[in-house]
Amino acid sequence: MSNLWKRLADVAKATAHEALDRLEDPVMMLNHYIREMEEELDDAQEALLSQRAVERTALLRHQEYLRIAAELETRASEALAAGREAEARAALVESWPSSRRRCNI
């Protein structure tokens, strides 16, 4: 009896597949797939542009951090060379919060 049900199920599946094959136009389906791929490509290009902007912002911040670090080091070195160790230390301590605000940390 189970063999009968299996055969009936196979016939139903084959009939459904045959009906779908007749409805499916290959050119129409290819055009649909191409449209989907173009949408995915547009999304990927937008994501790439966004990522490049993030990268550029990070690079500019990094360069600003390097500039501030060099400036602080120079000021501290000059103060130390002039024998003003406390002033050098104070300048670095006082400048650190303002450099963080300028760079949006």
UniProtKB/TrEMBL annotation:
Signal peptide: none annotated. Keywords: Coiled coil. The keyword Coiled coil applies. Residues 27-89 form a coiled coil. Belongs to the PspA/Vipp/IM30 family. This is Phage shock protein A (IM30), suppresses sigma54-dependent transcription. It comes from Thermobacillus composti (strain DSM 18247 / JCM 13945 / KWC4).
